[in-house]
Amino acid sequence: MKISQRQFQLLFFTAFFALNFLTLPSRLSAECASDGIICLIITSIIAYGAVCVTINFMAKYPGHTFYSALHNSLGKPLAITFYALYIIHLLIFFTYCTRLICDQISVYMLREYPIWFIECIFLSCVIFLCFKRTKTFGNIAQILFYFIFISLILIILLIIQNAHFENMLPMFTSSFLEYFKGTVVTSSFLYSAVIAMPFIIPHVDNFDKKKSLKFFAVAIACVLTIYIIYYVLCISILGTDLCSRLVFAAISIMESNRNRNFIFERYEILLLITIIFLSFIYASVVIKCIKLAIDKTAEKRKIYYISGFILIIFLIALFNYRDIGTVMLYFLESSNITMPFIMLPYTVYALFKIKKRKAEKK
To answer: Which single residue of 47, 48, 150, 311 has CA 20 to 30 Å from 12?
Structure first.
């Protein structure tokens, strides 16, 4: 059963928040101090362009899966190449997301449990949802969206009273190179859910291209606004130097603002619960995409591929264990190796256009 247009929209609206939400202020302020707002705006414009070309590409092949659309437009060799690149990037993002959120759960909520145990529980929940009907998947995303959005607004209201906006000064003093480095940081993880879109679009009931393009213009503008507020508040409260040194700046702020008279004595738990839901939606989207890919490309031996896929997912949890996971997390966070993902939709669409023009000339 397919998901509705509204569920599809809210699903990706939520997924756009997940990766790098906790570490963003630290990384960005280290590269370009308080001028990271410019980098966020540039990345959001690039991301919306990626959404547009993805939706336009899939709209050219209604009723086709992503692989089928790639095969028909680019030919088998390029189709396999780009399909593999999409899945590899999704797995990298999934690994990073899983390690990051489970690390925080281990430190702030379940200190007595080893991180591999927490990851296995998290992965079990994600995989369980992935094997449910697509409609169930959409329903859960739709319900969690409203909780997440209200929680983010509440968190902003809780900490804005401690902001000192003079800490943002001076602004717009960074060099071109610093802006470039900041944009590379933001482009490496923000809006990474865009590469999951072509896998899900064929499973949207009565997909409407025009409505989706309009919705995601508003959605990315809203996500950008929250990212900017979040970034500005972290620097305003902590200052540029301290913000750049604290890996999880927002959690540090929430820890220092406890109120025994409020329903949440530990503000950081409210933030972590919100991030857990965000990460759960994001991880579920990624795993669902890979599951759909297996369903359509390995129908005869699907059970073997799915079993191997689940084994790989749990090996990721073990690989993330202790020092190995810490090194891997640091590498993914600092190397910006995933930055090219944002260009994948543009490259596919450009090759599609080139091949189409060559075919028309013949």
So the answer is: 311
CA-CA distances (angstroms) from residue 182 to 159, 187, 196, 319, 324? 25, 9, 24, 29, 27
Q: Which two tokens stand for residue 195?
A: 């590469």
Measured CA to CA, the distance from residue 196 to residue 344 in angstroms comes to 11
Which of the 8 DSSP states describes residue 204? B
CA gap 43, 49 in Å, rounded: 10
pTM of the model: 0.84
Other beta carbons within 10 Å of 90: 22
Per-residue pLDDT tens over the stretch 113-135: 877 778 778 887 887 777 777 77
Please report, for the domain that includes residue 319, its CATH number: 1.10.4160.10
336 CB-side CA count, 13 A: 16
Residue 196: alpha-carbon gap to chain centroid: 10
344-361 helix and 36-59 helix, angle to the nearest 10 degrees:
40
Q: How far apart are the first and last CA of the chain?
A: 41
Q: Facing residues of 204 across strands? A: 3
Query: What does the pLDDT look like over 167-201, one tens digit per residue?
Result: 777 777 777 787 787 787 777 778 888 888 998 88
Report the distance separating Cα 49 and Cα 55, nearest Å.
Answer: 10
Give the structural domain span for 199. 5-361
